[in-house]
UniProtKB/TrEMBL annotation:
Organism: Streptacidiphilus fuscans
Keyword entries, A-Z: Acyltransferase, Transferase
Domain N-acetyltransferase stretches: 1-147
Pfam families according to UniProt: Acetyltransf_1 (PF00583)
InterPro entries for the chain: Acyl_CoA_acyltransferase, Bact_Acetyltransf, GNAT_dom
Full protein name: GNAT family N-acetyltransferase
GO molecular function annotation: acyltransferase activity, transferring groups other than amino-acyl groups
Length: 147
Protein backbone atom coordinates (compact mmCIF):
# COMPACT_ATOMS: atom_id res chain seq x y z
CA UNK A 1 0.00 0.00 0.00
CA UNK A 2 1.13 3.52 -0.79
CA UNK A 3 -0.34 6.91 0.10
CA UNK A 4 0.14 9.69 -2.42
CA UNK A 5 -1.35 12.95 -3.62
CA UNK A 6 -4.37 12.64 -5.87
CA UNK A 7 -3.98 13.92 -9.41
CA UNK A 8 -6.55 15.32 -11.78
CA UNK A 9 -6.83 11.84 -13.32
CA UNK A 10 -8.19 10.63 -9.96
CA UNK A 11 -11.20 12.98 -10.10
CA UNK A 12 -13.65 10.27 -11.16
CA UNK A 13 -12.75 7.83 -8.37
CA UNK A 14 -12.75 10.67 -5.83
CA UNK A 15 -16.28 11.49 -6.97
CA UNK A 16 -17.32 7.85 -6.48
CA UNK A 17 -15.78 7.79 -2.99
CA UNK A 18 -17.55 11.04 -2.08
CA UNK A 19 -20.80 9.26 -2.93
CA UNK A 20 -19.77 6.38 -0.65
CA UNK A 21 -19.05 8.86 2.15
CA UNK A 22 -22.49 10.45 1.76
CA UNK A 23 -24.11 7.00 1.91
CA UNK A 24 -22.03 6.09 5.00
CA UNK A 25 -23.49 9.12 6.79
CA UNK A 26 -27.05 8.30 5.69
CA UNK A 27 -27.30 10.52 2.62
CA UNK A 28 -27.67 9.76 -1.06
CA UNK A 29 -25.08 7.48 -2.63
CA UNK A 30 -25.11 9.57 -5.79
CA UNK A 31 -21.61 10.61 -6.74
CA UNK A 32 -21.08 14.35 -7.20
CA UNK A 33 -20.34 15.72 -10.65
CA UNK A 34 -16.75 14.89 -11.64
CA UNK A 35 -16.39 18.41 -13.06
CA UNK A 36 -17.20 19.82 -9.61
CA UNK A 37 -14.54 17.59 -8.01
CA UNK A 38 -11.98 18.55 -10.66
CA UNK A 39 -12.69 22.27 -10.20
CA UNK A 40 -12.51 22.09 -6.39
CA UNK A 41 -9.26 20.12 -6.28
CA UNK A 42 -7.38 21.11 -9.42
CA UNK A 43 -8.91 24.43 -10.49
CA UNK A 44 -7.45 27.90 -9.94
CA UNK A 45 -8.64 28.09 -6.27
CA UNK A 46 -7.82 24.66 -4.89
CA UNK A 47 -10.11 23.95 -1.95
CA UNK A 48 -8.19 20.97 -0.56
CA UNK A 49 -5.45 18.42 -1.03
CA UNK A 50 -6.51 14.79 -1.29
CA UNK A 51 -4.26 11.91 -0.26
CA UNK A 52 -5.18 8.50 -1.67
CA UNK A 53 -4.27 5.11 -0.20
CA UNK A 54 -3.59 2.76 -3.10
CA UNK A 55 -2.89 -0.90 -3.59
CA UNK A 56 -1.76 -0.99 -7.20
CA UNK A 57 -4.58 0.59 -9.18
CA UNK A 58 -7.15 0.03 -6.41
CA UNK A 59 -8.07 3.01 -4.21
CA UNK A 60 -8.50 1.93 -0.58
CA UNK A 61 -9.34 5.26 1.04
CA UNK A 62 -8.72 8.97 1.13
CA UNK A 63 -7.89 11.88 3.37
CA UNK A 64 -8.84 15.44 2.47
CA UNK A 65 -6.85 18.24 4.10
CA UNK A 66 -6.67 22.03 3.97
CA UNK A 67 -4.40 24.63 5.51
CA UNK A 68 -5.81 26.83 8.28
CA UNK A 69 -4.34 30.12 9.33
CA UNK A 70 -3.75 31.38 11.93
CA UNK A 71 -3.30 28.40 14.22
CA UNK A 72 -1.34 29.73 17.21
CA UNK A 73 0.10 33.19 16.66
CA UNK A 74 1.02 33.22 12.99
CA UNK A 75 1.47 29.43 12.76
CA UNK A 76 -0.42 27.35 10.23
CA UNK A 77 -2.30 24.15 10.99
CA UNK A 78 -3.47 21.36 8.73
CA UNK A 79 -7.17 20.57 8.96
CA UNK A 80 -8.28 17.02 8.23
CA UNK A 81 -11.77 17.39 6.77
CA UNK A 82 -12.36 13.80 5.74
CA UNK A 83 -10.76 10.46 6.47
CA UNK A 84 -12.50 7.55 4.77
CA UNK A 85 -11.58 3.94 4.16
CA UNK A 86 -13.67 1.96 1.70
CA UNK A 87 -15.69 -0.80 3.33
CA UNK A 88 -13.70 -3.80 2.06
CA UNK A 89 -10.44 -2.32 3.36
CA UNK A 90 -11.35 -1.31 6.91
CA UNK A 91 -9.39 -2.62 9.89
CA UNK A 92 -6.36 -3.36 7.70
CA UNK A 93 -4.14 -0.39 8.61
CA UNK A 94 -5.35 1.93 5.85
CA UNK A 95 -6.68 4.63 8.19
CA UNK A 96 -3.47 4.59 10.22
CA UNK A 97 -1.40 4.92 7.01
CA UNK A 98 -3.55 7.84 5.91
CA UNK A 99 -3.17 9.54 9.32
CA UNK A 100 0.60 9.07 9.13
CA UNK A 101 0.56 10.67 5.66
CA UNK A 102 -1.58 13.56 6.95
CA UNK A 103 0.97 14.24 9.68
CA UNK A 104 3.81 14.01 7.13
CA UNK A 105 1.94 16.51 4.96
CA UNK A 106 1.62 18.86 7.95
CA UNK A 107 5.33 18.64 8.76
CA UNK A 108 6.29 19.24 5.11
CA UNK A 109 4.02 22.32 5.03
CA UNK A 110 5.60 23.67 8.23
CA UNK A 111 2.38 23.34 10.22
CA UNK A 112 2.45 23.41 14.00
CA UNK A 113 -0.47 21.01 14.40
CA UNK A 114 -3.15 18.85 12.78
CA UNK A 115 -6.78 19.42 13.70
CA UNK A 116 -10.00 17.56 12.90
CA UNK A 117 -13.47 16.79 14.17
CA UNK A 118 -15.23 13.46 14.55
CA UNK A 119 -18.89 12.58 14.92
CA UNK A 120 -19.74 11.31 18.40
CA UNK A 121 -21.84 8.57 16.80
CA UNK A 122 -18.89 7.16 14.80
CA UNK A 123 -17.29 4.66 17.24
CA UNK A 124 -14.79 3.26 14.69
CA UNK A 125 -13.34 6.74 14.10
CA UNK A 126 -13.21 7.52 17.81
CA UNK A 127 -11.49 4.19 18.48
CA UNK A 128 -8.90 4.90 15.78
CA UNK A 129 -8.04 8.30 17.24
CA UNK A 130 -7.81 6.82 20.74
CA UNK A 131 -5.51 4.07 19.41
CA UNK A 132 -3.33 6.80 17.90
CA UNK A 133 -3.04 8.33 21.37
CA UNK A 134 -5.03 11.46 20.56
CA UNK A 135 -7.56 12.79 23.07
CA UNK A 136 -10.58 14.91 22.20
CA UNK A 137 -10.15 18.65 22.66
CA UNK A 138 -12.89 19.85 25.00
CA UNK A 139 -12.24 23.56 24.49
CA UNK A 140 -14.08 24.00 21.18
CA UNK A 141 -17.72 24.04 20.10
CA UNK A 142 -18.47 23.29 16.46
CA UNK A 143 -20.81 25.61 14.49
CA UNK A 144 -22.18 25.51 10.96
CA UNK A 145 -24.20 28.06 8.99
CA UNK A 146 -25.21 28.58 5.40
CA UNK A 147 -22.96 30.76 3.20
Amino acid sequence: MTVEHATEEDSEIISVILGEIEAYYGGSADAPDVKQVRQALFGPRQAATVLLARDGSQILGLASVSLLWPAAGADTSLYLKELYVREDHRLKGVARALMDAVHDEARQAGCSRVEWTADRDNPPALALYAALGVSPHDGKVFYRSQA
